[in-house]
Design a protein that fits this description.
Strand order of the largest sheet: 3-6-2-7-8
Shape: globular
Structural class: alpha/beta
Subunit structure: Interacts with small ribosomal subunit protein uS11. Not a structural component of 43S pre-ribosomes, but transiently interacts with them by binding to uS11.
CATH architecture of one domain: 3-Layer(aba) Sandwich
GO cellular component, one term: nucleus
Helix content: 40-55%
Catalytic activity: AMP + ATP = 2 ADP; ATP + H2O = ADP + phosphate + H(+)
Enzyme class: transferase
CATH topology of one domain: Rossmann fold
Mean pLDDT: 95
Strand content: 15-25%
InterPro entries: Adenyl_kinase_AK6, P-loop_NTPase
């Protein structure tokens, strides 16, 4: 099987604009499909429990990957989640790590109604560049990019840049990519 479109991960700390970026990119580039992993996991029976301390669902990663694999082989996914290391490198063509000013992130998460402990934990993750390090440790550094996500202007600039990247990928791979092992 050949896929004619790239698969992209949009990752970052909660509140940094992953969903906004993914949705806008899919609106602008024909053929791309937004996969909000949290929703996808709920809708595909990939939830294994609930973490009360973190106030979030526990995703069964094996079930999630099994459910996503047929879609990833077809290509054109924009995968939106707060982590990236679980996705096989062979699936992914670009990893976008969104970054946000710590004060702005704190305000966004507080506005969402997150518990103070969850706000603090996520701001610390952002300060320590945990998700950027995770991306660089698990994927070829040449496919990992870091983008600032702080306002509507940066959202528009980032999505325009990503749409251009997709266009270039398609030109560079006129026959697609073989997804067979």
């Amino acid at each position: 099987m050949f896929r004619k479109l790239p698969n992209i991960i949009v990752t970052g700390t909660p509140g940094c604009g992953k969903t906004s970026h993914a949705e806008l990119l899919c609106e602008q580039v024909k053929g791309l499909t937004h996969i909000n992993v949290s929703e996808f996991a709920k809708n595909n029976d990939c939830i294994d429990g609930y973490d009360k301390e973190r106030d979030s669902a526990i995703v069964d990663e094996d079930k999630l990957l099994d459910a996503l694999e047929p879609l990833a082989c077809k290509g054109g996914l924009v995968i939106d989640w707060h982590c990236c290391e679980i996705f096989p490198e062979r699936w992914i063509d670009l990893v976008v790590v969104l970054r946000c000013n710590n004060t702005m992130l704190y305000n966004r998460l507080t506005k969402r109604g997150y518990k103070e402990s969850k706000v603090r934990e996520n701001v610390e993750v952002e300060i320590m560049q945990v998700l950027l390090t995770e991306a660089k440790d698990n994927y070829d550094e040449n496919i990992v990019i870091e983008l600032a996500s702080e306002d509507v202007d940066s959202l528009d600039e980032n999505v325009s840049r990503l749409a251009q990247w997709v266009e270039n990928w398609v030109k560079d791979h006129p026959d697609g990519i073989d997804t067979s092992l």
